[in-house]
Design brief:
Strand order of the largest sheet: 4-1-5-6-7
Oligomer: single chain
Number of strands: 7
Largest sheet: 5 strands, mixed
Number of helices: 3
């Protein structure tokens, strides 16, 4: 019997390994609107920039990419981020302060990365992510598993 490969970490192009975790960041969150147009830089853009800056020295930067999202439809709960990975719970967090939450987000992402099922007990989360939970979504079934 041969060992099965975990398809969540294998790219279908050139056999190159691809990250199975993603940190999604809404870049439209906390926008100021006037006459249907966004004015200036949004809070989500500021948070994204802070995360990208801190992630330059983050030990998981190659395994847990940050992906900007135009809108995550939680506009009344901004700023919003999500942790997602193949075979794990997906977490959606909101009501995050623009300033002071980037380090906590990366800390929590690191915790999420180490959990086989992605379960992040409330007591283990950094403070900004204790109050800001919007959803915990069950994992999708993995291919080839019954």
């Amino acid at each position: 019997m041969t060992a099965a490969k975990d398809i969540s970490t294998i790219s279908t192009t050139n056999g190159v390994s691809a990250p199975s975790h993603t940190l999604f960041v809404c870049k439209t969150c906390a926008s100021v609107w006037q006459d249907g147009k966004r004015i200036g830089e949004s809070g989500g853009q500021k948070l994204l920039q802070q995360l990208q800056h801190l992630a330059q020295d983050w030990h998981l930067k190659d395994n847990f990419p940050i992906q900007e999202v135009e809108c995550m439809s939680a506009c009344d709960r901004s700023c919003v981020v999500a942790f997602a990975a193949s075979g794990k719970l997906t977490y959606l967090f909101g009501d995050l302060p623009v300033d002071g939450s980037a380090a906590a987000i990366l800390q929590c992402a690191s915790q999420y990365y180490t959990k086989p099922d992605g379960l992040l007990p409330w007591s283990e989360r950094p403070e900004p992510l204790k109050k800001g939970i919007l959803a915990r979504i069950p994992p999708t079934p993995q291919l080839g598993k019954n």
